[in-house]
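Forum: Protein Structure Q&A
Topic: Joint prediction for protein chains with partners

I've read a bunch of threads here and the consensus seems to be that you should model interacting components together rather than docking separate models afterwards. I'd like to see that in practice. Below is the full input, 713 residues plus whatever partners are listed. Could one of the regulars post the assembled result?
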Amino acid sequence: MNANNRIHAINAIAARLPDAPNGNLPPDRSMETYGEDVFGEKAIQTCLPKAVARKLLATVKGGQPLDPSIADDVAHAMKDWALSKGATHFTHWFQPLTGGTAEKHDAFLEPTGPAQAVQKFSGKNLIGGETDASSFPSGGLRSTFEARGYTSWDPTSPAFIKRHANGATLCIPTVFRSYTGEALDSKTPLLRSVQALTKATKRLLAHFGLEDEHMSVTLGAEQEYFLVDRGFYLQRPDLLQTGRTVYGAAPAKHQQLDDHYFGSIRPRILKFMNEVEDRLWKLGIPAKTRHNEVAPAQFELAPTFEDLNLAVDHNMLIMETLRQTAARNGLVCLLHEKPFEGVNGSGKHCNWSISYGGRNLLNPGSNPKENAIFLTVLSAVIRAIDLHADLLRATTAGAGNDHRLGANEAPPAIISIFLGDELSAVMHEIETGQAEKKSGRAKLKIGVDTLPPLPADTTDRNRTSPFAFTGNKFEFRAPGSSHNCAMNQMVLNTIVAESMDAISDKIEAMPGDFNTNLQKLLQRLIRAHKRVLFSGDGYSSDWPKEAAKRKLPNLADTPAAIEPLRDPANQSIFVKYGVLTKTELDSRYEIALEDYQRRIRIEGGVALEIARSMIRPVVADEFSKLATAISLAMKDGLKVGVTGLKALSLKLGAGLDDLHVKCERLDKSLVKGTPADQIAQMDELRRTVDALEYLVDDARWPLPKYREMLFIY
Ligand code: ADP
Ligand code: MG
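Posted by a regular:
Agreed with the consensus. Here's the joint model:
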């Protein structure tokens, strides 16, 4: 038996010479090419008659409803533009509830007679599409409603060109609905939630005398990922089928030395990153930072924040670009939340804020009125998170993220808010009214000119908090690296909208001076919701105990975490704000649960198959060779070596027995066990396999090892 494919993969990487610096042409980063594959404002202005362009831009930028009479003109211009980019097909591009994106291509080709055709793309093609939705997860929506799904154009996210080796496709961002209008995607509720938040924000800010200004919810999604050499990846059925390694003994060195984080980036990786950025450049996706992350072979890409809807689409495109570019570079990009046990997992930090009339509402202001607005919005967020921590937690659920949350390198499953020392002090002063008594310090009153300047930036960053205020935005760190941000952002928008409305209700009901009332209101809000504020170490073992005392929910795994989606009180919020109907919410619950159960079963199946068909034969073979050697040595009366051989064969034999027993148990559990039991059996089996990895002849171990996958690339 020879399992030397591993060694071949190492040799192949060893034979690969790094490119010389500047060996290739430097990337094209001229401003004319930025966003050239996007049918955005620039293309709209050049390709469309002025009047049509004006109408379309009013929809794209001003949120005006689309004038259907311009659809044919827009489609025609878009087609010519796409053809000039080499596109042969168009597709409605949407985000079904699989968590990924979907596309179905149609050629522009339209036959007009035998061997005769034209290239056509009509307004009808642009605006709507009909597709068979029956193979997308619908969580019960399908059984109640008919199987057809309808895509409709979302003009607020521009069409773009996707390229492959010998062609290109025009992609039109769309929403995806059932015949009766139920949202079958993650974008529809996202857009609805932005509307809800916009309305609530405008209502709240009107109390401060602010005009009805252009508002935008902003998102900057930092994307973490791993890269492994494709040669190793192809030899790991677990990575191939589940995105994570179900086996792998800890290497002596992993991330203890902290020598990878922000380290100098290896040439092969930089070349990869540059190619990713080339692509994103043309798509107008503002890739801003790139760096090595904490775990070996882990990296991060962070774009500059954008309007939420666009930022979500861009994050989906970033993930796809990472995967495709990796493949071209002989690498594989792992977006799973925990591909490797024992080292950091990957998250997607969702930086969220609200911009109103061009001003960031989470930016502590430069005058008392701005400060008052800032503190009111901040309090609204605190109230929302305290009351609905369970809903926010639900959006981070998933089989993959379960391995990450609460492990000692990621935020725990308890949702709390970090404000930083200075801002916490300000909140404390408002709550206790202390500032008024402090001598030598201006009275802390909201909305009057004695408010002390607020800290412009909280420099102390607490990386252990799941929801941290970082100077001018909230950073939600619990979402998983593979997740679509739309779900968590949709919930965040909705609960903040509800909170703002609750504040507006109170303000409107209080007679008398606005500033005095606001001061009182904020004081009450902080008092009522301060339990969710926590600036300490979220990774410490004391925190769950403290959180329990504060009655903060601690929902440890996916089944527990998604339960709040079915809570009638929770559901009524989404219904009230027109974000999701009860049926739509129920369907999301069903899909999340089903997805979880299926993933665990697949992992269990893969674990079993590897243990039985790859690990056991190697161990059995090594054991039987040892047994033969021992009996021969004893027959010959050898004085040395027998002790060593016997000791090893005892360990291998015990491992072999263990393997047998634990495989049987997992097998049984996969037939009728609960997911929790299946996970427990997998963990048990893993312990045995990982112990064997240390014992078995290295040259014959069939699975690429952690020390190889994480360090050789
Ligand atoms: P970090 O120290 O967490 O890396 P950065 O300042 O680099 O923080 O920002 C991280 C992300 O937050 C970036 O994507 C950035 O564009 C985004 N961000 C900054 N300001 C805002 C904002 N007002 N709204 C949303 N995201 C923002
Ligand atoms: Mg960050």
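The first strand starts at residue 87 and ends at 94.
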